[in-house]
Structures are given as structure tokens and as C-alpha cells.
Design a protein that fits this description.
Layout lengths: L1 H51 E6 L2 E6 L5 E3 L5 H6 L6 E2 L1 H4 L12 E2 L6 H6 L4 E5 L5 H7 L2 E4 L6 H12 L2 H26 L4 E7 L2 E5 L7 H7 L6 H9 L4 E4 L4 H4 L3 E4 L10 H4 L2 H4 L2 H4 L3 E3 L10 H16 L2
Parallel strand pairs: 3-4, 3-6, 4-5, 6-7, 8-11, 11-12
Antiparallel strand pairs: 1-2, 8-9, 9-10
Helix pairs in contact: 6-7, 7-14
């Protein structure tokens, strides 16, 4: 009986050991598999977002941007001035920006990337951030080179866009500083401009190969200042087609030009082609416009007027104020 009892005890002990071993075999792989995964995904993500990276939600997805940017390539040419305003000097920009007269003295040491379509050129520059327009055909390739942010043009006001760049680069304070200084200047000159112009209308017109472009409130050429900051009146046709529509621009024929021309006109040839603007400026229709007869036509810079970044806006503001308040 004693031996039988001892045997039962021994068998029971062996069974408990086996059950424990089986339980450990069932649990250990799951734990061992999960723990490294947690260490690889959670810990580095916390480090990247807090110490080394800023996680930015762009239209092309979540982008991890280095905190200490050194080598930014801006292919979305409208936004080079935003980075300059934030104290970040890009290492590469397009030829188009190089032609902007408002950037004179600010682009020294920056290399041209041509029209921005060469993936090989951008790769050779070893960037730590690439900024492109939404819809760039090389977006996927650029994203393999460095963190790449795609920007949809005109979806945000210039203030909002600068703040976005501030957020993604950790320089939101710089963005707010520029906006505060800009708002102060607008507050100083806006009453003077509105008093000088009154209820008269202002138009922005650029002849091109197939007609004339009329520009509104969010497409450069000073529209952000004229219609946005100063809240000056646009001709009714321009207001409807280019501003109320939200497009920022409208196509105009020579025949309909009088409907789009204001009491004041800011104009230049369009920079997108090489058409001779004299086909418009030399026409009887143009010469018969009240603004032309009253010497209220002001020539804007063909290349610089395209831009609506902080640097360009500052120069455009001075020009617009000068012209609208002169006797």
C-alpha cells in the first residue's frame, strides 16, 4: 500500500511537471514574438517623434521629418519663400524661383535643380526633406530618396500655409512671428489704400497666347493683397468667375475684356509662354479701357508676380501700396 501510494505521488508530480511544460510551450512563442515587435515598433516610434522626428500628416500620407533639417530641396517653387521666412535655406530649388527678382540676394549658395523633374539630380543632393506639389509625377520616386511632403496649391491661405510649414519643421514660432509683423504692416497701410481707392474696382490681367487671364484672390499676382488684405472691389465679372468660383483665375477674350477690366489694372505678360502681349496691349479694345485712358495701369513683374510666398508678398505689398496711393 505504501509503495502504491508513493507511486501515485510520483506520477502526480510528473503529470504536474508535464502540464507546466506544455503550458509554457503554448505561451512562450506568443510572448517571445510579441515582445520584440513591441520593442521595434513602440520604442523607436516614441524616440523618433520626440527626439529626432516630427510626424506630419501630409496629403500623401504620414511623413516623418527630421527635427534638425539641413538639406531641404523645394521643388514646389511657390514655397521657397516660406522656408526662407522660417530661417531654413534650401539647398536646391527650381530655375523658376531663380528668376524671381524678389529673391535677389537671398538665394546665394542654393543650387538649381532645373525644372525639378530629374530624380537623379535630387538624389545626388542627398536631401533630408523634399517638398513637391501634390500630383508631382515623381512623388513615389522622391519618397524613396527622402521624406517627401506633397502640397496642394491654393488650398490654404498664405498664412495657413506658412503655419503648416512651421509645424512640419518645428518652427511654428517663426511662422507666427512673420504673420504678426505682416498683420501689423497691413493694419498701418490698409486705411490709406482703402481711402485712396474707395469704391473703384481693381483688376489683375495677364495676356497669354490664347487670350487673357484674369486673376483673383489666391493665385499670386498680388491678388492675396488686393482682394484679401485690402478687400478692394473686383469688377463683377472677375469677382464671379475668379473669386466666387474659388478657382483664383478666369480666361478672358479680347471681346469680353471690358467686363473684367477695373478702374485700376495691374498687368504683365503671363510667364507661362512667350506670346507677345502687344496683341492685347496694342489693340483698340485695350486702349479704350478707362484705366488705360486714366493712366491707372501698373506693370507688375512678369516672373515675380507668379509667387505668393512671404518674401514675394512683402515686395508686392510695397509696390501695390505705392501705386494705389500715388496722386
Amino acid at each position: 500500500m505504501h509503495q502504491a501510494g508513493s507511486l501515485k505521488v510520483i506520477l502526480l508530480a510528473v503529470m504536474l511537471v508535464l502540464v507546466g511544460a506544455l503550458a509554457a510551450c503554448g505561451q512562450a512563442p506568443a510572448n517571445n514574438a510579441a515582445q520584440p515587435a513591441q520593442e521595434q515598433s513602440a520604442a523607436p516610434a516614441q524616440t523618433e517623434s520626440s527626439d529626432e522626428f516630427i510626424t506630419y500628416q501630409a496629403v500623401n500620407g504620414e511623413v516623418k521629418i527630421p527635427n534638425d533639417l539641413k538639406r531641404v530641396v523645394v521643388l514646389a517653387d511657390s514655397y521657397v519663400g516660406d522656408f526662407l521666412a522660417l530661417g531654413i535655406k534650401p539647398i536646391g530649388i527650381t530655375d523658376h524661383v531663380m528668376k524671381n527678382p524678389y529673391m535677389k540676394g537671398k538665394l546665394d549658395g542654393i543650387e538649381s535643380v532645373g525644372d525639378g523633374s530629374s530624380v537623379e539630380k535630387v538624389l545626388s543632393m542627398n536631401p533630408d526633406l523634399i517638398v513637391v506639389f501634390d500630383g508631382d509625377k515623381n512623388l513615389a520616386e522622391f519618397s524613396k530618396i527622402a521624406p517627401t511632403v506633397a502640397i496642394p496649391y491654393g488650398k490654404k491661405t498664405f498664412r495657413e500655409q506658412l503655419l503648416e510649414f512651421g509645424k512640419m519643421t518645428g518652427r511654428e514660432d517663426k511662422a507666427k512671428e512673420w504673420i504678426a509683423a505682416w498683420d501689423k504692416k497691413i493694419a498701418e497701410v490698409k486705411p490709406k489704400v482703402q481711402a485712396a481707392v474707395g469704391d473703384k474696382t481693381v483688376a489683375i490681367l495677364q495676356p497669354y497666347a490664347k487670350g487673357i487671364y484674369a486673376f483673383g484672390h489666391n493665385y499670386g499676382r498680388g491678388g492675396e493683397i488686393i482682394y484679401g488684405e485690402f478687400q478692394l472691389k473686383a469688377p463683377a465679372a472677375l469677382q464671379k468667375a475668379a473669386i466666387d468660383s474659388g478657382t483664383g483665375w478666369a480666361q478672358v477674350s479680347l471681346e469680353t475684356l471690358p467686363d473684367f477690366a477695373g478702374d485700376y489694372i495691374f498687368t504683365s505678360a503671363w510667364s507661362g509662354d512667350d506670346a507677345d502681349p502687344e496683341s492685347v496691349y496694342g489693340s483698340a479694345v485695350w486702349k479704350g479701357l478707362p484705366a488705360v485712358k486714366n493712366n491707372k495701369v501698373f506693370r507688375i513683374d512678369r516672373d515675380g508676380s507668379y509667387f505668393n510666398d512671404p518674401v514675394s508678398l512683402e515686395a508686392q505689398l510695397d509696390f501695390i501700396v505705392e501705386k494705389l496711393t500715388q496722386n
